[in-house]
Request: fold
Amino acid sequence: MSAVHPSASISFGSRVHKSPFYEATRRWGCNAFSVYNHIYMPLYYESPEAEYWSLVSNVVLWDVACQRQVEISGPDAYDFVRLLTPRNLAKHHVGQAKYVPLVNQAGGMINDPVLFRIDEDRFWFSLADSDVLLWAQGVAHGLNLDIDITEPDVSPLQLQGPKATEVMRTLSGAWVLDLKYFWFRETEIDGIPVVVSRTGWSNERGYEIFLRDASRGDELWERVMAAGGDHGITPAAPSQIKRMEAGLLSYHNDMNLSTNPFEVGLGKFVDLDQAVDFVGKSSLRKFHETGLTRQLKGALIDGDPIAVNEHRWTVFDGDTQVGELTSCVYSPALDKNLAYLFLEISYAEPETRMRIITPDGERSAIVCDLPFVANRANT
Reply:
């Protein structure tokens, strides 16, 4: 078997899409990319650790245009959107965003987007990494609903960190001080059409700026960076460290089509009593009645700082295999190795000691509840 090349990289071409901010990210020193929703996504500029400290201390700007939108519009849009998620949307107001699991007929997780109600008959699903556009078009086939299902010209940036509000105030005005958590407003920044929402993937106070004209991506990026100059703003990428501290999930890492919402702590977003016959309802009811057979839990891994895992690692209780590690990272603020473990339910109790087989040898870990750090975004 050949050795892994230590300087493996992604080669850039025309097949994978580039975000409206791509040239700016290269110009500002992005050193690594991944591919997410068929788009190049920055992984880091200086280092994940340096960007983590900028995030928790000051403010950072992320290019998350890979977080594509699926727009459902038309007279029957609300009725159709309610078919797509087990979350009850009876009180979903215009100007409000909601976190919504999406499942298939078998109850398996398809995606966990944030749903924006742009207007009475227009919605955006702001997506994790899977092809929801194609799935939604398939669900709609044969229903004879008056709807359009499209991918609009919308590309988000995320402005995250304790100084994000001051930067956003410079950009948009004092009205952002009154913007409630998980609400948004359509506006302009120096004539650039955007939607600004009080949302993000960091567990810090933050905003998403949804660009509505891709031709002005470079202009918007530079405007945000200039507004943040007095607040120590730096370009960065979504933080694996911060999202794990916060107990946030990552699609494909911590859940997939073989995972149901109850197993990953999303049962509170499943309303089986609503009259809507949403996709996967009968399967989710069976899961609910049967009870959990496995569960995603947190864990603290002993030893020196651990590298982010490229594959799932096997978890043992004694000599018995009882689950898998889905994600891990070293937290410099907590000075601990954090992990998510998918465990058989009888082993998913806090304080249970586990053995984890890593590429560098065996580690000991102790199970705990999520999150590792309390929510700071809603403050």
